[in-house]
Design brief:
The protein contains 12 helices and 18 strands. It is an alpha/beta fold.
Length: 437
Amino acid sequence: MALPVVAIVGRPNVGKSTLFNRLIGERISIVEDTPGVTRDRIYGTTDWNGRSFHLIDTGGITLDGVDELQNLIRVQAELAIDEADVVIFVVDGREGLTVADRDVAGLLRRAGKRVVLAVNKLDHPHHFGAAYEFYELGFGEPIPISAEHGAGTGDLLDAVVSLLPAAEEAPQDEDAIRVALIGRPNVGKSSLINALVGEERLVVSPVAGTTRDAVDTPVEVGGQRYILVDTAGIRRKGKVYETIERYSIFRALRAIERADVVFVVIDGAEGITEQDKRVAGHALDAGRAMGFLVNKWDVVEKDDKTAHRFEEAIASEFPFMRWAPVLFVSARTKQRIHRILPLAQRLAESHCMRVSTSTLNLVIQDAVRTVSPPSDKGQRLRIYYATQVGVKPPAFALYVNDPSLMHFSYERYLENRLREAFGFAGTPIRLSVRARS
């Protein structure tokens, strides 16, 4: 299920990041009493009264900014508004209504979004009368809050949740494998999808997806149905929007939610970047089956060891994803394009693989005999038995005498032994250590 999106916007220094941290419940955004501290959008997920949603913190919007940094901050905020289902418009109740507030209000009216107006920095009910001035912005009843102390945030969240769209579930097609291509802008995601759809043997029909303005494309190869999850489209066209790399992070999050298999697309000519690692990290946290597609391989100067060196670089930069396969492709020349969907099928099968309890325990017992479990202060970890408790990704519970004795390195050793025994290509494995009751 794709979660709705709520963006927090306003002019600089009205308390947007303080409110974001309050609603998320942890200090994620940097908070300083200086305009312009939040320069990029920050993302989190929270819930209220049973409704979960993504929350975006943005930099302060100044429409009269003359320097490039202010313009980029404004563009980031506009992109967040574009993506949002509901916008929390934060103003400063102590300073009162300003020209900058009116400018932001005009921007929101042009965007046509559902808006909840939060009048911040009203720490006591005696001050709530200051909120009435903001009625003239035209966004309904202003909600007085104190982001710093938490006052009024419950009323604010009630208003936000009341405006969220009804929950939508992805269309159910149990036999189809949902495949998302994620990555930085301009690495060739759209070109790869076009190349996949353009194969003459594919049966293609566009079906509207659950995410706004996205189109999921069903294709069929060798009797197996796939759904290509759109991640490439940016609703507001223009060079400045397309060149902001951090915008791809949130697009990736939305695509990951709707996918079974995720391919991280890397530009073979440019190499691995920090942005690639951030995008991949989100898919790993979500427990999706994963692989790497190194695109534009046709323009890379190569010798007989170039591919091997690139694989080593991926293993070094993504040390917790050594199990993810790497495929070198070219959307332009169609090099190895025909291998992508069969690879997705193999990864999906690993992602939902089940193993019998008896076979699982034989593998664990053999691993314990080969390398003894760790000990601490004279007490040694004892693993009594193991069982599989879930799939997508495969999850296993280890019942032991004392979970605190399980060392991270030994847990990783057991994971590697499970991979050796059962394969689990391209999927993370979850291990939970529990005390035997």
